[in-house]
Design a protein that fits this description.
The chain is mainly alpha-helical. It is built from 7 helices and 2 strands; from the N terminus they run αααβαβααα. It has one domain (10-139). Helix content is 79%, strand content 3%. Strands 1-2 form a two-stranded antiparallel sheet. It starts with a helix and ends with a helix.
């Protein structure tokens, strides 16, 4: 389970990093204006990271709602194993697998999402923090 979660976190991390990096590139002039008005580079980096975490949390919320509905359905109906169910029955595996929900899974998933959002925003935040105000405003 941990290996699957790591692979999914990496995939999600690349998606978030791509989105945040594109956002930073598109908003270069905006960040240049913010820097020229006195915003520190550290604070600008925090803004980018906060946006990344917020986008990750919104995605987690939507996925949690849809995922919970699917888990409730699979807990009631189950996943039939078909003809292999009789073979697995010899090893103590039932013919239908039923899903279950645990608060630990939700908590661990939330932690993975937040950490992934922060790590994915590291490079784009660093890029935004290194912008020179005059060059950023003039670039576009």
């Amino acid at each position: 389970m941990a290996l699957i979660m790591i692979v999914l976190a990496l995939l999600a991390g690349f998606g978030v990093a791509n989105t945040v990096l594109f956002s930073v590139i598109e908003r270069t002039r905006e960040f240049g204006v913010m820097r020229s008005l006195g915003m520190s580079s550290r604070r600008l980096a925090k803004v980018v990271v906060a946006e990344s975490v917020l986008a990750s949390l919104m995605g987690f919320g939507a996925a949690a709602v849809l995922g919970y509905g699917l888990v409730v359905y699979l807990a009631q109906v189950g996943i039939p194993l078909g003809p292999m169910g009789t073979v697995y029955g010899e090893f103590g595996i039932p013919e239908r697998l039923h899903a279950s929900v645990s608060g630990w899974y939700w908590g661990a998933s939330l932690i993975v999402v937040v950490v992934t959002g922060v790590l994915a925003a590291w490079y784009p935040a660093r890029r935004a923090a290194r912008l020179q105000p005059v060059e950023a405003i003039r670039d576009q």
